[in-house]
Design goal:
The complex is a heterodimer of chains A (271) and B (98). Chain A has 271 residues and is of the alpha+beta class. In chain A, 23% of the residues lie in helices and 36% in strands. In chain A, the strands form 2 sheets. Chain A has a 7-stranded mixed sheet with strand order 1-2-3-7-6-5-4, covered by helices on one side. In chain A, strands 8-9-13-12-11 form a 5-stranded mixed β-barrel. The chains are: A alpha+beta (271), B alpha+beta (98).
Chain lengths: 271, 98
């Protein structure tokens, strides 16, 4: 039987602490299990969520499909709807409510969206990319599904620290960009380490007959990077922020095309 | 024939990257890139300068092209950009409310 007393957990991803409050002990346990390395009870939250756990089938959403996501800005609130959850976020109050069943997938999707919205105003980006720290420098490996993000993560040498094999978290810093670890895992099904490092290079992944690195013109880099940026809202101001961030990224960080055969020798090029 | 006035729409983000003008529509996040002549027209699209004058001043002088041909090409180009929702066309000067 569940407790009616609300408890909370503070989950800090990308130096952005988000407090999640719920009266479901089962859901709280799911959160602590899934985001364990990212729980930071001493941080000051920048956003708070109340999560109401409801039975599947009783979620107040107009979307019937778990694969279809609707994000709209309505009367000062972001409304996120998918078949398995509904969320309403008030950016001014930095507060949101989520209705979902007790599973980690809905909150994971909500986190990705909230972080993308919050980051957009701060010059940061969420990118479909694996990222790894090696010799205190971060390297991003961007590509759409099937490009090899998980493969290159799996091949990483023992001295490399995995930040994520799926969704990379980039923040603008004084001298460039920093990559942060995220719990957003892909096929590797393993959360990243909760560490950060300055971003040294971004590689656009493609698999081929040999390992090689080729230069990429800035305009082509921008096109490819924008294809990999996670962004959900068709809002003029935020789209402008995301576009500016992607432009800044390709102008400040070396972007190269990495063609690789799927074996460990590709890492001889990444130093 | 009445003059054509052109203005950049506000709901786009634009930046010159590596010598290419890249434009993103906020409406549907479509990304456009403009060549050199299209960029010259885009940059001069202030809503109050007739297209013919833009062509004369920005294209004919810079690219040494025949004015009639250049104007015809420019009209086609701006119609295309307008269809994509990144430029506004009018037969009157376009003055945006602040």
């Amino acid at each position: 039987m569940g407790s009616a007393i609300a408890q909370d957990v503070l989950i800090e991803i990308g130096a952005m602490p988000v407090l999640v409050r719920t009266s479901s002990p089962e859901f709280l346990h799911i959160l602590r299990e899934r985001y364990g390395g990212f729980v930071n009870s001493s941080a000051q939250p920048v956003f708070e969520f109340e999560v109401e756990i409801v039975q599947p089938g009783t979620i107040p959403t107009a979307i019937g499909d778990d694969e279809v996501l609707s994000v709209r800005f309505d009367a000062g609130r972001w409304v996120l709807e998918r078949g398995d959850f509904r969320a309403e976020l008030d950016p001014a109050l930095r507060h949101g409510r989520i209705w979902q069943s007790a599973n980690p997938y809905a909150i994971d999707a909500a986190f990705r969206i909230v972080h993308s919205l919050l980051l957009a105003r701060q010059g940061g980006l969420l990118v479909h990319a694996a990222s790894v720290v090696r010799n205190d420098r971060a390297f991003l490996f961007a590509g759409v599904s099937g490009a090899g993000k998980t493969t290159i993560s799996r091949l990483a040498p023992p001295d490399a620290t995995l930040l994520t094999d799926e969704i990379s978290y980039l923040r603008r810093e004084a001298d460039g960009y920093a990559a942060y670890g995220t719990p957003f895992a892909g096929e590797l099904a393993q959360p990243g380490e909760n560490v950060r490092a300055p971003l040294a290079a971004l590689y656009l992944l493609s698999q081929g007959p040999e390992n090689r690195i080729d230069p990429v013109a800035d305009a082509d880099a921008l096109r490819d990077v924008l294809r990999c940026v996670l962004f959900f809202a068709h809002d003029s101001e935020l789209v402008g922020h995301v576009f500016d961030s992607a432009c800044n990224l390709v102008q400040r960080v070396p972007v190269r095309r990495l063609t690789f055969v799927p074996d460990f020798r590709v890492w001889e090029l990444i130093v | 024939m009445s003059p054509v006035y052109i203005a950049r729409v506000k709901e786009v983000a634009a930046r010159s990257i590596g010598g290419e003008m890249m434009i993103m529509s906020a409406r549907d996040s479509t990304l456009f890139s403009l060549n050199e002549t299209a960029t010259a027209i885009w940059q001069a699209a202030d809503g109050v300068t007739p297209l013919a004058e833009i062509v004369q001043r920005s294209l004919c002088a810079q690219f040494e092209v025949d004015p009639a041909t250049a104007l015809r090409d420019a009209e086609e180009l701006v119609e295309g950009l307008a269809k994509h929702g990144i430029l506004k066309l009018s037969d009157q000067p376009i003055v945006e409310a602040k």
